[in-house]
Design goal:
This protein is α+β, with helices and mostly antiparallel strands. 46% of the residues lie in helices and 14% in strands. The chain contains 5 helices and 4 strands. The chain has helices at residues 21-28, 72-84, 92-103, 107-120, 126-145; strands spanning 6-7, 35-40, 44-49, 52-57. A 4-stranded mixed beta sheet has the order 1-2-3-4, covered by helices on one side. The longest helix is centred in the C-terminal third of the chain and has 20 residues, at 126-145. The two termini are 23 Å apart. The mean pLDDT is 91.
């Protein structure tokens, strides 16, 4: 997956590489087709679409594959954002990664998504981690069966 953003600032936020329309649609609980533009500004993301004009924090967007993996600095930025809200990753991250696991058609791809979730599991509840592990195992078994 390639991040899809429009750069509107001279300085790009380090978490901007994780911005995708798919993640934003899930965060805002709207259909993907309703989002027209995602503008990455210096400190926030501006989402424009049909009946939508919202600002979103970079700290609310989950990491994805296909770009540089999360660093310690990225994790520190997420923790800083989470301290202002609920002390953990937004709940939709679990649904986002569940969807990513279910979309996998190769074990290698599933493994890479699992490895990515392992890097950010500090922001998830134990029950959420267990849920994602179960989904991972089910999908891995389905892929193995062909």
């Amino acid at each position: 997956m390639i991040s899809t953003e429009q750069v509107k600032a001279k300085f790009l936020h380090p978490l901007a590489r994780f911005v995708t329309k798919e993640a934003i649609a899930q965060l805002l609980k709207v259909k993907l087709e309703r989002i027209r533009e995602v503008r990455c500004w210096r400190y926030v993301i501006h989402v424009v679409g049909v009946g939508i004009s919202r600002f979103v924090s970079y700290g609310d967007i989950p990491p994805i594959l296909g770009v540089e993996p999360p660093t310690q600095e990225d994790c520190a930025r997420w923790r800083k954002r989470w301290r202002k809200t609920q002390q953990q990753a937004p709940a939709f991250w679990v649904d986002f990664y569940e969807g990513k696991f279910r979309q996998c058609d190769r074990v290698e791809e599933l493994f890479n998504w699992g490895k990515l979730v392992g890097k950010i599991k500090h922001g998830l509840l134990l029950s959420q981690i267990e849920f994602l592990r179960n989904i991972y195992c089910v999908v891995k078994e389905c892929i193995a069966r062909g």
